[in-house]
Design a protein that fits this description.
3 domains, OB fold (Dihydrolipoamide Acetyltransferase, E2P), 5-stranded antiparallel sheet, Chloramphenicol Acetyltransferase, alpha+beta, binds oxidized coenzyme A, Dihydrolipoamide Transferase, 23% strand, 8 helices
Amino acid sequence: MTVLIEIKVPDVGNVAEIDVVEVLIQAGDVVVLEQTLATLETDKASMDLPSSVTGTIQQVYIKPGDKVSEGTLVATVLANADQIIAPLAPEPEVHIEEPAPVKLPETLSVPIKSVTDVKVIELDTAQRKAHASPSVRLFARELGVDVAKIKTGSGRKARILKEDVKKFVKKVMAEGVVASGAGIPSIPAVDFTPYGEIETLKLSKIKRLTGQNLTRVWLNLPMVTYHDEADITDLEAFRTSLNAEKVKGDVKITGLMFIIKALVAAMEQFPNFNASLSADGESIILKKYFNIGIAVDTPNGLVVPVLRNANTKSINELALELAEKSEKARLGKLLPADMQGGCLTISSLGGIGGMAFTPIVNAPEVAILGVTRAKMQPVWNGKEFVPRLMLPLDLTYDHRVIDGAEGAKFMAHLKQNLSDIRRLLL
Ligand code: CAO
């Protein structure tokens, strides 16, 4: 037999005005015994109001912001007669009050001997006061969220609601990389307006994503950058003569194409550079293909198109492909597939200038080659100083995969091939 049950606010200890903070049901909802119907709050505590029956909500009589007291009708529920038991008392929430601040005497009578005498005690988040109902706490626990980490809620008196838990999870997911930074404190927000006029511009999506990725890599990889110079005097003479043969409309050959070729040759010789570390850090995955990523500067930020199978392509083919892909990149027309599957990245600032820099590895790759501007320099040949065109190279590698000596040998091989590109035929 079906009966209509009235659920009322039970005795909560002679409190006249109880605030309704949250109502979690609506007409038509099926509720089960002990399911939280609403969250109530007095000056002293907050509590979840549980259902005393299993059934279907017929009508809800309260809304957030209402003031209720013992006996106020909360909802009517259609239930089977055999389901009915005595009304359940609300589940009270225990508030953990923040400890009173410790007042320091204005003058310390005991001199501090050294910095090591000072002990900073960080309150465990669980000890801090979190203003949330048991149902919200349960919801947060199910998602693995510590409610104490949600600083303020959007409910009355900054109470934490389910929506706040959801927002917190979304924020943590969005900032995943930064939040996983081994508890590194974030940079505090600063109001710059007292110092002068400011303008706030939104970062482009590429910049935001690149920033997250770079932060993740910076925090996860122990990186070393090794600097050296390659003598590209002969290479440059050859390159200039090649370009002189080009007719209008042909794609120009820049030094970068030879760097790609020399890099691939060095990767063939040192397979650890054409590898990735497995996610558990237990194995090295060696790649038998040679896809080179090229960092391209665009108005919206840095993107890295990938030249696939660079080992099988000629200098002219590479030049044509890079011209096409960098143009697409600058127009924002690269597809995700154009930027996937890279083995090692080159970041060339040579067209702009520079002497050296420390590029960040494009993980899961294990190394990146930075290039800055070649410069004519006096080089001692054993008898005299001769003018040579020297190309600065910066090799950053993941030290978990590549040892220092291996990095230096890789660079030596690369330099040798760039100094005498006939070696690339061997
Ligand atoms: N030394 C001296 N001159 C160099 C040079 C070097 N290392 N590298 C390039 N040049 C010269 C080129 O020969 C060319 O000269 P001409 O105009 O006289 O022919 C000029 O500089 C411009 O070259 P380029 O930059 O157009 O061509 P590229 O093949 O060297 O590079 C690309 C292509 C796409 C890599 C480059 O345009 C680019 O976007 N670079 C920026 C990458 C970047 O932002 N990296 C930073 C990542 S970390 O934040």
